[in-house]
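Justification of resources, computational component.

The compute hours requested in this renewal are based largely on the per-chain cost of generating structure records like the one below. Each record pairs the submitted sequence with a full C-alpha cell output. That output is archived, and it is also reused by downstream analysis tasks.
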Amino acid sequence: MSNHPAVGKNVVIGEGVEFGQNVTVGHNVVIYDGCKIGDFTMIQDNVVIGKQPARAKNSILPDIKKALPPTVIGNGCTIGTNAIIYANATLGDEVFVADLATIRERVTIGERTIVGRGVSVENDCKVGKKCKLETNSYITAYSELGDYVFIAPYVCTTNDNYLARSKERYDKFKGVTVKDGGRIGANATILPGRVIAEDGTVAAGSVVTKDVESGVIVAGTPARKLRDVPEAQLLKNQE
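The structure output for this chain reads:
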C-alpha cells in the first residue's frame, strides 16, 4: 500500500493497492488487488471495489479467462455504503457514488458525475462529466452518455430487441446513446439503440421508440414531439 489511509474495522485490502493522500475507508470494505484510489477519496462502509465479474453458465456473454485490470478511482470521490464497483471501471475526479449503486466492468465515469442511490450502470458503458443519474435509474450495457446528461429516477434503458429469444440477437445488442445535455424524465423507457441528440428531452413516463432530435421535447407512448426545448434551458445557456 502507498500512503496510509484511515481504515475501519474488518477491512480487506488486496496486494498492490495504491492509496493517495487523506483517503478514508469505512468498516467491512473489500478492495481487490491492484486498485488505485485517489487523494481525498472517502469509501464508506461495506463497499466492494475491484470485484471480478462472475458469469452465469447460461449467459451469452463470452467467458473471460483472464482477470480484468484493477479499478481506478480518481481524487476527491465519495463511494457510498454498500456500493459495488467492478474491476476495470474508471472513475474521474470528484465522482459521487451513492449508497447501493453498482458500477460494472469496463465502465468509465467522467469527473463530477453523480451516480445516485441504487443506480445500476451495466458493463461496457461510458458516462461523461457532470452527469446526474438519479435514484434507481438503470443504464443498460453498451450505452454511452455524454456530458451534462440528466437521468431522472427509475429511468429504464434497454439493449435487446429480441427479449432473450433467438440466436439472432447475439450480435445485435445495442445500448442507448444520450448526447451532451440530453435529459430523460422519471419512469421513461428507452428502447435499444435509440439516440437522444444534444439537448434532447424525454418527458416522464414516455416510451422512446425512435431517435430524439436535438433540442426537442418528446412525450407519450410511443414518444412524439411535444415542442422545442425552451431557449433558456439549452445547455449553451447554462451558467
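The radius of gyration is 19 Å. Residues 143 and 175 are 4 Å apart (CA to CA).
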